Amino acid sequence: MQELYRNIPSMHQLLEQEMMVHYKNNVERDTLKKWLNEGISHMKKAIREGEQGITLRYGSKEQVMIQLKSHLDTCLLKDQKKRIQSVINATGTVLHTNLGRAPLPKQVGDSIQDIASGYCNLEYDIEKGKRGSRYDAVESQLCQLTGAQAAMVVNNNAAAVFLSLHALAKGKKVIVSRSEQVEIGGSFRIPEIIEESGAIMVEVGTTNKTYLRDFQKVMDEETAILLKVHKSNYRIEGFTAEVKGEDMVDLVKGQKENSPIVMEDVGSGVLVDLRDYGLPYEPTVSSLIQKGIDLVTFSGDKLLGGPQAGILVGKKELIQKIKEDQLTRMVRIDKLSLIALQEVLNLYMQKSQKAYRALPIMDMLMISKEELQIKGEKLQKQLAEEGVTYETHLVSCQDQPGGGSLPTTVLDGMAVAIHCGDEDAAGKMLIALRHEEIPIIARIKEEFVLLSLRTLREEDSMIISKALKMYQMKGMA
Ligand SMILES: *Cc1c(COP(=O)(O)O)cnc(C)c1O
Predict the structure, then answer these.
(1) What is the mean pLDDT of the chain?
(2) Which residues line ligand 1 (CB under 6 A)?
(3) Above 80 in pLDDT, residue 404?
(4) Protein residue with its CA nearest to atom 6 in ligand 1
(5) How far is CA 474 from CA 225, 295, 432, in A?
(6) Is the per-residue pLDDT at 13 higher than 80?
(7) Inter-residue contact 347 to 337 (CB < 8 Å)
(8) How much is the average pLDDT of 455-474?
(9) For a tag site, which of 45, 211, 273, 348 has the least CB within 10 Å?
(10) What is the dihedral of CA 441, 443, 447, 453, to 10 degrees?
(11) 270 phi and psi, to 5 degrees?
(12) How far is the C-alpha of 84 from the C-alpha of 396, rounded, in Å?
């Protein structure tokens, strides 16, 4: 035992070793010391407890170093896995909240690189040669695309809602239906947001039914906003009644003075009629503006397919008032997102299916069964060429729009199903794929690993094939 202990160098000796340079370049010295200490105590424990094979593993100074290096590599890999990196989404969920919501078109990345790597006219009016507004370009695009009088953009939609309530309803009443008390992704809850904004929430109706007369009954001079919130991630079915935004508009019009405004938080916010592409109806932002909704808020990175952003469109005087609120500066959109949004909106301006399909989100939603079939056959071919011998089948599967949009919509999808033998083996393969250098996130169904084709990109096929080939070889060894 003493012999073996003697093979373990001191911390000082360890840190001086040539091989430590690599780790020193990647982590702070204190972290490296912590990892080495872990490795050493692990060894000492194994020796103390006389574990099997210790004389082999720690029999010489060289062997000890090999063990420590392997421990450091594991630590470094774990550390690096936490960094934001590319993953392959084989889940078929298009707007995957955990996988970064909307992937951006390639050309957006190019624009960001071109514009942001140097100076740009973010807040400079080139015509006038003096200070300008960062919102000018996208505001003009948004007004054209939605027909609204004015627009502005903030950090995300949660901020857009909060800011609107703060700027327009602080100390006043906001009326909202009990069926629209939404909670989004953990911490965004409408009742709490209203309260935090300084507005007074007035709930009307019941969970399943709310009528216009419920709003009418409580609306008074103290009311600033009639709020409608999109039921983004749930549906109420059966015996139901809900009040449309346009009916609220009619109700408000009847008021003589101090009439409240109608605000709609649509969550996802679409700019094209999805029915044209075989998808369920979602009111477009322009249709809401046309119906007279005073203020509409939505996300940049949901169905719009852009960067994280909160978009507000509506009446000029309201947008003006919001822009003047002190909180605006705190929820300001950053330069990179703004450039991305500008490029994405530019694609919408072209109003062609080709331009829409340049947006990955739209492309994945609009893809046809035939196209999925072709994609599947290509992947199968690639797998065979790489020498992957698992049995694969091209099967139908159910995909989802995801990201709190179109909650009950199921998309007819197709997947390459890899036969793993049994459920256990499928589970193991699923985990192994997730631990690849470029992690592959898939699903399992019984003894199959499903690779949904909708969310796979062309370049993913090669990576998946190589990963499966390696996994197969490890299994044989
Ligand atoms: C998603 C969503 C939000 C929050 O939007 P973020 O852009 O994620 O901040 C707010 N309201 C509704 C109805 C939503 O669906």
Answers:
(1) 94
(2) 156-158, 161, 182, 184, 188, 229-230, 232, 265, 267, 299, 310, 404
(3) no
(4) 157
(5) 62, 58, 11
(6) yes
(7) no
(8) 96
(9) 45
(10) -90
(11) -110, 150
(12) 32
The atom of ligand 1 lying closest to the CA of 301 is 7
The pLDDT of residue 23: 95
Give the mean model confidence (pLDDT) for residues 18-45: 94
Tokens of 65: 């170093």
Number of the ligand 1 atom closest to the C-alpha atom of 265: 13
- Above 80 in pLDDT, residue 405? no
Provide the whole-model pTM.
0.91
From 98, 153, 163, 188, the mutation candidate for ligand 1 (largest count of ligand atoms within 8 A of CB) is 188
Q: For residues 278 and 272, what is the distance between their CA atoms, to the nearest angstrom?
A: 12
The rounded Å distance from CA 184 to ligand 1 centre is 6
Which of 233-237, 275-279, 409-413 has the lowest average pLDDT? Answer: 233-237
- Evaluate the CA torsion angle 161, 162, 163, 165 in order and state its sign: positive
Helix axes 61-81, 29-48, angle to 10 degrees: 130
- CA 401–ligand 1 middle distance (angstroms): 15
44-101 confidence digits (pLDDT tens)? 999 989 888 888 888 888 999 999 999 999 999 888 888 999 999 999 999 998 999 9
Nearest to 399 by CA among 385, 387, 413, 389: 413
pLDDT value for 50: 86
Block residue for tokens 């399992």? 444
State the DSSP string of 390-441: S-EEEEEEEEEEETTSSTT--EEEEEEEEE-SSHHHHHHHHHHHHTSSS-EE
Taking only the tens place, the pLDDT of each residue in 292-350 is 999 999 999 999 999 999 999 999 999 999 999 999 999 999 999 999 999 999 999 99
Distance 299 CA to ligand 1 centre (A): 6
User: Which two tokens mark 194?
Assistant: 């209203």
CA–CA gap between residue 396 and residue 251 (Å, rounded): 48
Rounded to the nearest angstrom, the distance between the alpha carbon of 127 and the centre of ligand 1 is: 36
Q: Which two tokens stand for residue 309?
A: 């952003």
What's residue 477's pLDDT? Answer: 66
Bridge partners of residue 314, in order along the sequence: 150, 295
DSSP-based helix, strand, coil % in the chain, nearest 5: 45, 20, 35
Q: Provide the residue count of the chain.
A: 477
Q: How far apart are CA 345 and CA 337, in angstroms?
A: 12
Nearest residue by C-alpha to atom 15 in ligand 1: 267
Residue with tokens 């703004």: 338
- Do 262 and 248 meet the contact criterion of CB atoms below 8 Å apart? yes
Ligand 1 atom closest to Cα of 231? 13
Q: What is the pLDDT of residue 347?
A: 96
Q: Give the burial class of 432: count Cβ atoms within 10 A of its Cβ; 0-12 exposed, 13-18 middle, 19 or more buried.
A: middle
